[in-house]
From TrEMBL:
It holds the Pfam family DAGAT. The chain crosses the membrane at residues 6-26, 38-62. GO terms for cellular component: endoplasmic reticulum membrane; lipid droplet; perinuclear region of cytoplasm. Its main location: cytoplasm. The keyword Lipid biosynthesis applies. This is Acyltransferase. Its EC number is 2.3.1.-. The gene is MOGAT2. It is a multi-pass membrane protein. It is found in: Cytoplasm, Perinuclear region; Endoplasmic reticulum membrane; Lipid droplet. Pathway: Glycerolipid metabolism; triacylglycerol biosynthesis; Lipid metabolism. Keywords: Acyltransferase, Cytoplasm, Endoplasmic reticulum, Glycerol metabolism, Lipid biosynthesis, Lipid droplet, Lipid metabolism, Membrane, Transferase, Transmembrane, Transmembrane helix.
């Protein structure tokens, strides 16, 4: 019986893991599924928060042991492979299709809604809103196949862009690249949009760290008014802009919001300016009970709606007037997307998207 369980884990299909666990522990199907969902989400939360630092410390420790050659070989590989994240990365369809991501999806649950077809002869920049604490909807929908992004948008290769600093962390960088995640910097985006053919879609969480500081349940606001760099990139490459809104992204964690001018907000902005991320004081539910505090997000539905693409001309050196024009078109399109779908996903028709 134990051998059957280990075989199921090695094969990695959701049904085989579930069957093996039921045989091993005599638990009901629903309880086993819930525990697998919790484990799948917990591993990603820990990856997000500590994997980079932990792997760096472990590598440094191994260098000081008799196994130093293993760490030295990896570091040599790291030097050789340093620029791979800037050149589209090294995605793995096997990793993207892991059964664990389907349990991750079902924990909330997370859904991906397609509203329009995307042409494989074009490249795209998706603007993802809002950031939330961890961008859970962005990760699940575009860095895994759990919600069927490749089936819904055949021929389109999604690249979720995140902080470039993550790709300086050993092991973490390889884990992220396997899901099709790339650095959110100009070198990486230029390469994907100009030297990787067509059918590419870069997902940029436009509000970034600044937006995460204001995310809280019941609030639908985006940091967008002065975020125009992604529009300029789209114009330089002739990549169509696609507004994306994730209903429920702000509902899964509760956060302490520091007022502007407070010492807490000052510290957060200093981190954001010098390091690229802003530390947040947040909590979700506990590991064993939804009535206690912990790092697990609350089980709240997240529905990501991919809007209509905005055709963007290719302009090598766009003027500020041209950038402002297409930025305003994008903002209007995002607001229309929000207004059209808000009633379908639990918001009152009177709800207004706040654009800061």
């Amino acid at each position: 019986m134990q051998c059957d369980f280990l075989l199921a884990l090695s094969i990695g299909t959701g049904s085989s893991i579930l069957s093996a666990l039921q045989d091993l522990f005599w638990l009901s199907k629903s309880k086993v599924e819930k525990q697998l969902q919790i484990i799948s989400v917990l591993q990603w939360v820990l990856t997000f928060l500590v994997m980079g630092i932990a792997c760096t410390l472990i590598l440094m420790y191994i260098l000081c042991t008799d196994c130093w050659a293993i760490a030295a070989l990896y570091l040599a590989w790291l030097v050789f492979d340093w620029n791979t994240p800037k050149k589209g990365g090294r995605r793995s369809q096997w990793v993207r299709n892991w059964a664990i991501w389907r349990y991750f999806r079902d924990y909330f649950p997370i859904r991906l809604v397609k509203t329009h077809n995307l042409l494989t002869t074009r490249n795209y920049i998706f603007g993802y809103h809002p950031h939330g604490i961890m961008g859970l909807g962005a990760f699940c929908n575009f860095s895994t196949e759990a919600t069927g992004v490749s089936q819904k948008f055949p021929g389109i290769r999604p690249y979720l862009a995140t902080l470039a600093g993550n790709f300086r962390m050993p092991i973490l960088r390889d884990y992220l690249m396997s899901g099709g995640i790339c650095p959110v910097n100009r070198d990486s985006i230029d390469y994907i949009l100009s030297k990787n053919g067509s059918g590419n879609a870069i997902i940029i969480v436009v509000g970034g760290a600044a937006e995460s500081l204001n995310c809280t349940p019941g609030k639908n606001s985006v940091t967008l008014r002065n975020r125009k760099g992604f529009v300029k990139l789209a114009l330089r490459h002739g990549a169509d802009l696609v507004p994306v809104y994730s209903f429920g992204e702000n509902e899964v964690y509760k956060q302490v919001i520091f007022e502007e001018g407070s010492w807490g907000r000052w510290v957060q902005k200093k981190f954001q300016k010098h390091i690229g991320f802003a530390p947040c004081i947040f909590h979700g539910r506990g590991l064993f009970s939804s009535n206690t505090w912990g790092l697990l997000p609350y089980s709240k539905p997240i529905t990501t709606v991919v809007g209509e693409p905005i055709t963007i001309p290719k302009i090598d050196n766009p003027s500020q007037k041209e950038v402002d024009f297409y930025h305003s078109v994008y903002v209007d399109s995002l607001i229309k997307l929000f207004d059209k779908y808000k009633g379908r996903f639990g918001l009152p028709e009177t709800e207004v998207l706040e654009v800061n």
